[in-house]
């Protein structure tokens, strides 16, 4: 919230090195990466969160919404 997203990303990644199953931190990391429009990295972490949710349908739906938003802001290039 203070605009120090680069620092936040580094902290979250450090935490996940020693605690890779810390879902809340991974979700926060994914959210920050999404806000920074680092979509490939955000997608990776959102998908890891989604794979570990088990029986939390509300959170699963929120993660799916982020994944859909990432897909919607993708630029497409077609050529013939």
Throw out a few tags for this protein.
globular; 80 residues; mainly alpha; 0% strand; 4 helices
Summarize the structure.
The chain is an all-alpha fold.
Q: Would you kindly provide a written description of the structure presented here, covering whatever features stand out?
A:
With 80 residues, the chain is mainly α. Helix content is 70%, strand content 0%. The protein has 4 helices and no strands. The longest helix has 16 residues. The chain is globular. The relative contact order is 0.13.
For this structure, the quaternary state is single chain
Distance between the termini: 44 Å
Largest sheet: none
Kindly report the average pLDDT value.
Answer: 88
The DSSP helix count reads: 4
Helix content: over 70%
The H-and-E topology, N to C, reads as: HHHH
Report the sheet-strand fraction. under 5%
Structural class: mainly alpha
Low-confidence stretches: none
Q: What best-fitting shape do the alpha-carbon axes yield? A: globular
Rounded radius of gyration (Å): 14 Å
According to DSSP, the number of beta strands is: 0
What's the arrangement of secondary structure elements?
Elements: H1 5-18, H2 23-35, H3 39-51, H4 57-72
